[in-house]
Fold these 2 entries.
Entry 1:
Amino acid sequence: MSGTERLRSEPRREDERRAAERGQAQPPRLVVIGNGMAGARTVEEILSRGGDFAITMFGDEPYGNYNRIMLSNVLAGVEDESGIFLNDLSWYTDNGITLHAGRRISRIDRFAKQVYAEDGTATPYDKLIIATGSRAFVPPIPGIHRPGRGYHQGVFAFRTLDDTRSMIRYAREHERAVVIGGGLLGLEAARGLQNHVSHVTLLHAMGHLMNTQLDAQAGAILQRSVEQLGIEVVCDAMTTEILGKHAVTGVKLADGRVIDCDVVVVAAGIRANTEVAAASGLVVERGIVVDDQMRAQDEPDIYVVGECAQHRGETYGLVAPLWDQAKVLADHLTGRDPRAAYHGSRIATKLKVAGVDVASMGLKEPERDDDETLIFSEPRKGIYKSVIIRDGRLVGATLVGDVKKVAFLMQAFDRGLALPEDRVELMFDLGGPPAEVSAAELADDAQVCNCNGVTKATIAETVHGGCKTVSGVMDKTRAGKGCGTCKSLVAQIVEWAAGGAVEEDPRASWYVPGVPMPKPELMAAIRTHDLRSVSSVFAKLVPGGQEDAKSKMGLASLLKMMWGEDYVDERDARFINDRVHANIQRDGTFSVVPQMKGGVTTPAQLKRIAEVAEKHAVPMVKLTGGQRIDLLGVPKEKLPEIWADLDMPSGYAYGKSFRTVKTCVGSDFCRFGVGDSTALGIALEERYQGIEGPGKMKLAVTGCPRNCAEAYVKDLGVVAIDGGRWEIYVGGAAGAHVRKGDLLATVESPDEVITLTGRFLQYYRENANWLERTYAWVPRVGIEHIRAVVVDDTEGLAAGLDAAMDASVAAYRDPWKERAQPATPGQFRTSLPLVVLPQVPVR
Amino acid sequence: MTVLGHLEDIPPGEGRTYDVHGEMVAVFRLRDGSVRALSAVCPHRGGPLADGQIDHEVVVCPMHLMAFDLTTGCSLSGQPDLTVYPVTVDADGYLVIASLTASEVPS
């Protein structure tokens, strides 16, 4: 692989010369017709997979490759031309690509495997990619062309950089513009032209704006907002003639109206560029017909990507499907994944159209009688929201003016997530954090990630530096890697900075970043191959057997959960806290928290702790939020001695594991208590102590609904209610994220609480992603589903969950007993550099 | 040349800190049997790198998960790079580190 890497960084000619000297076969010749976003992106994907081809690209336009989506920004004057280039000419040289910019291909000889340019030159290929994109559709309106001279003076299409340049040049010296076409592009053109002329009229032949994406009501609200920006909008406006002898003076509509203007911009849609393909004998309908490998019909060596491709009857005019297609084609051509297949794209878009936020996905109107539809409309504020639900899944949504919920809706639409019981939560944040600031509005120096001090500007620079996945940016900048509450804002900024070209990271669905599988597949593979250690998982399930430091801890937790006593424990897979059963502190010392079940202690226990703290001069003794006592500032090498002196079990205040059960004084002493919360809390902790999981599990039991033990905001909280019954809440949180738990069940006895707790925790352990706390997992999976599995056992899983939990409980060993003999050489040897660490003050 | 100790003092896939003439050096034993030595202190906030988790390429500091290339010492998370020390295992399985010259020792 490194050989390929090295060769690729040098010009191709050099490659060939060397290959010839060594008498090696030359790499296959790959010719790409089209140097737009689709063609260049496909080549990038091929290069990133180490694909070894002699690549030649033909582009119509005499430039490198630019981001067409940004042309409206160039027109609006908010972006320089230089800012929209994706790959400049040096990229082609650096990657050994021969680029013929401005040379048009007129014919493909499928049999001789050559392409012919208009100047008559022939170029042979082994593999051919057609990425000719599309062009502006210009309706046959009388007067739009001048015989033999292209468009009439003052008429422009809006598709290429050259179109945009000449439009700007001409518009600057004129006054009134008409835009024909009220779709996305037309609206963008109208908004951009306002920058250059004093008056803009938008003509739309259909009944409402953006009729492909929006229903009539949403279109009307968008129209109002656009009109408030000073753009005049006429719908149902069929243009019948362009007026003016030497230059445009106006347009005439079917109803006889004449609108004076001196600039006309046509944005009436696009048509795939398929002429060359059709003339060369390929199967062409609305686009060039391809199969799931993006291969032209009946052509083993010709592929098509982008707007000119027609896949399963669909052609796409947006950028996201193109990225998907490029990846599939690259996987296929390079042999990375010969079975890679494109299955079509679910179109969900979020755009700022002429300054108005618009998002649309799936259906724009209900289709069946039993489709659930929610509509909220507030025309005065320019806000419209509609949501369409079928069989409990989101099948369509439209947002105009307020797109705060778009991230969730897109996810729900794309992945078929469970939807909130209160459907209104699909449209509004109820009692959530204050209104979000949009990424674009945020100041450059605004701190986005307060944990790691990352500003918007840093994130944007990283994206512009070529890192276009949310997780990639998070890795590079560390934004969102602290408490995690800013992740959605980071994602929005990445999206904004990438100008819609954000890439989805497949790793987002994996259990850990280093093993390419979602959790259910990973668990199945672990069982199939009988993998009992972390190193065997890497060896068997990662291509190339590559280890990944950041995946080890998650795998260790999963394997321990799955295999219990039969888990092969490799200590290096553990995080330092789990190696020494204590929580590492900023100065490299550790904190020691003995178990104190249910927060109940005794004078003898307190005396013992006090004596140990005094004997070892523990710098700080602190009460924790989980009703325990924390001894802070203990050096690693002293841990075994302290455990021996304490002679108490570990409180697990360091692991991704069952932590503690907080309780109130309950019915024994409290005047209000209706249930013995302390006894139940102690019983729960006794049973589930130390159980590892995908994230921390903090519990509480409170003796009455006054909730002194804060049970509503725990991973699992139990509340005693009158009549001797108990409510069980799950998925609560009161850390960086605050959420009240959902009521899982109300039961009659403490025994039932203990059983359901074990079953719920086991279901969470088996299904949540690594580091996914219950507050994220419960809403993701849906409380109804969890209740069905855990309480009603509709899927017949309960017995298995109970048995698995029983096995984990049986495998529990107090880790603080591991002290007479170190588990590994130097387990407790200091790693401290001693001198340079910040000194934590002793109080 | 300085002998640090036996390779078996370091469990596979873990690291240990050694004081080499006053320099704190973290030595890692990779699961493929090879060894690497780097300065022991994370330049970010002084975390003990020998307590970090490793694979064949990087060590991740346990404090704030800053990552460093085990072979080059280069920071992968925007921190200053680490010093790399030449370390080998001799025929008897002892870890041997080349004497540090003044130029190799960070001031």
Entry 2:
Amino acid sequence: MGEITTGHYVALSVVLFFIGSVGVLGRKNAITVLMSVELMLNAVNLALLAFSRQWGNHAGQMLAFFVIAVAAVEAAVGLAILVAIFRLRETTNLDDMSTLNE
Amino acid sequence: MNPILFWLFAAIAVVSSLFVVTKRSPMANALALALVMTALAGLFAGLSAPFLFIIQILVYTGAVVVLIIFVIMLLNLRPEELKLQALQKGKFFASAVVALALTGLVLRLVSAEGSTPPAAVPASFGTVEAIADELFTTYLLPFEVVSFILLVGIIGAVVVAKRGE
């Protein structure tokens, strides 16, 4: 095990991002899809912090901070929409939420 | 960062993120997500970002995952509903293959070989003080915009989730 470089962090970030994308594309449960989106956002944050550390510049950390803030809002609003849909349809299955393309 | 710690956190993050996308029960997904967030917080600490380490634990593990768990318990999904939502084999494997291919491609671009460990940074790098200094000078406008977005989000979430008459 050699020293850990910025490349290691970015590689881990890429792996997590694509694992998250499988969840977004392949799952039918809306809550799980929302969680996978959060996973992808976090993977990007890891890359931002790795580059921030590489250049000794705070800009990446600031961007990651704003990403976290906006992701929290996105989760709150997304879950509120899910609750509203569940009241209406009694389902969290994305395949049952296709009124717009019928 | 200590290589052993890096590989430990990386393994926890990858394995539990696989649980997030493959486990059938949303509750298992949410608990695995909490584990991913915590492992990532550990990695953030190793990247000289103590402020974001705390924020990650507070906001993600403490707030977002707990909110998701609240909603899962609130919706009270029936087991037969969850069975219906089992992995759609074809769709899931197709996206997994595409993601695997793309991961391989991007990993070739960012391979760890040739990159060197970053130079040392001052001890104040990423501390609350250093972040606050920049946040309230250079990034004051984005900061105010984000606080407005948070306000809109709070009101929006209440309005959308409120029971209609």
